[in-house]
Structure formats: C-alpha cells, structure tokens
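Per reviewer request, we include the raw input and output of the structure prediction for the construct analysed in the revised manuscript.
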Amino acid sequence: MDRLSDILNRFSINAQVFFSGNLCGIQAFGGNQDDGGSLHLLKSGTLAFINDEGHKMVLERPSVIFIPKMFKHRIIANESDNAELVCANIHYSEGLSNPLVDALPKFLYFDLEDTGMMGQAAQWLFDEAFENRCGRDPMIDRLSDIFLIQLLRYVLDEGTVTHGLMAGLAHPQLSKALTAMHQDPQSHWTLDSMAAEATMSRSKFAELFREVIGQPPGDYITEWRVALAQGLLKKNKPVGLVAHEVGYENGSALARVFRKKTGLSPKEWLDKVRGVN
C-alpha cells in the first residue's frame, strides 16, 4: 500500500537550494517570502536555530530542520563553529492547499545520524553540494526533493505526527481507508464503504477518524475532492469533466460544494489564482 504517491503526484513539493557552505553570522528568514517552506541541513559544526517566538535550539550533530510553512526564524553560527550547511526553499503547487503540508507541525527537527535512508539521502546531498561537479545545481535540487520524500517516509514510519492526515496515514487501519479515497476519489464513498476499507465497524471508524484526523470522514473526502478539483481546474479542464473526475454528478453539484468550501465558484477561484480582475 503506497500511502504517499497519490498525494505527491497530485500536489507538487519541490526544493530549490539557495545556499551551501560555511555559515558565519546571523541569517534571518521568513520576511516577505511566499507561502513556501524552508529546509536547513547541517552537515557539520554547530548551529543555533531561533524561531519566531524566541525559542533557541543548538544543533551540534548532522541535523535537519524542515519548516513546511515559512515563518520568521534565524540561524546563527560563529566563525569558530565551522557550521557547514545546505539551505533550500520549498515550493508547492501555486494557489493550491497542500494536504501533506497542512498536516505537518510548524517545524520538524531530526538528528540525521540514526535515520536510515533519510540520513543516506542527506549524505548524497552533502556529497554533491560541497563538490564543484558538472550539473551540480540541478543535481542538488533533485537530491533535495528525494530527501524530502525520505523525510516524509520517516515521519510515517516513526509515527512522529500524532494528529491529522499524517497520523492517519501512519495508522494501520485508517491508512487503508485514506489511501483508497486518495486513489479513487470518484467512487461513491459512504461511511459504510470507508469503514469497510479500514476493516472496522461504522461507529468505531467514524469515532477513530474524527479523533485522529480531526474531522468527520465525510468532511475529509469533500475537502480532498475540492483540492483535486482545484488542481484540475488549473489545467484548464472543463468544470463538468472535473466534477466527474472527483466524484460529482455534474458541474453544478461540484460548484455548490466548491463555493461552500472556498466561498467562490470554480471560475471565480480560478480567476483569483490567475490574478484576473
């Protein structure tokens, strides 16, 4: 069962490295940047991380800090700290709500030395980032993308997140229902059919789903369908065709749900995303 591919294929997450080397001094992030995220990987040395609330964390081993949604923060290193690091901006599908990102905490921190394949992916990135080989820039961007997928795998395997979509995908029974919904949104999903995928009773499934995911199953599948519809609309697909692809009988049915969730009709939303007056 592949818990991540449908989400990653439908909602892009891409990294763009903007710094690799020795850090000296104070670097501030999150000023006027967009709704993307930030990734800091410490290869060696010592680094201080201070978040927007003034809380300080000192990194003294190979580590990663992943900030899914940008907020103001600083990283600090003295010359004697010999801090070698790689920093990347994270970009998401423009104008789309990303279910994975929305399900992650404000930031994630991991020591890289005992994280298996995630640590290996970081080492591949370090090997390229600190060597001047041909094709270096596109290589380190792609390796950063690979690292992010390994990070998400690690979060699922370790049960790092205890509430929301990522927690649901880590749950042995809820993940079956969620994956089925993600793969086949056009099906006529009912509480009975969702519970059957999870091999649970209706009442137990509904209770557990709300407890772990934070909303009823019916609300979740509706939000998933609207998010998919947004991506398809951006590809200039007709509303009627989009409606059928995400599980609604016609464009009018989709438009009603779409307006309820976004406050806009599909056309109004698309014009807003594209900056059309």
